[in-house]
Each structure stands twice: as C-alpha cells, then as structure tokens.
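quick one before i forget lol
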Amino acid sequence: MNIVEVEGVYVWIEYEVSAAIERSEQMQVFRNILEPLGLVYSGSGCALGTGWCDIDFDVPVGTDLHAIRDALDVDLGFAFVAKPGYLSED
C-alpha cells in the first residue's frame, strides 16, 4: 500500500442516483475524472431512500486545486455537487 501525504483537504461529492446508470458506473465516472489528477479515493456511501449518494477523495499535497474545479465543470448527465472540506485532526 502506498502512503500519500494529503493536503489536509478533501473533495466530497454528492450525486443523484440515476435510473439510467448503475451506481458503480457513476462512481467510476468520478474516479476516472479525479484519480488522474492525483486525488485518492477515500470512500463512498448512500443515504437509503433519499436518491443521493456520495463519494470522497483526499487531495494530496501539491495538487492543483483549480484543476479539480475545472475537471468537475462538466455535464455528466446527472446532478452532482462537489464540496471541499478539511480533514480533522482526530
């Protein structure tokens, strides 16, 4: 397992579950967009009955944050919201 030093921030993406696309395919779309930028997949989940799921990525040190924003400025055919956050020091 490779250890990646993270910036202390992450990207949390909420997305609407689509009837036309499998959830695993929706997750893979985000991985295909963000992993080439160096982001590290850190988890995902769904709130049952809401129609929305989430996927999270840690941001490694030195990642161009503007590149993340630009990469997510795309129409994927389903609704999503990307939110930055800060990793806690637990």
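fyi The radius of gyration is 13 Å.
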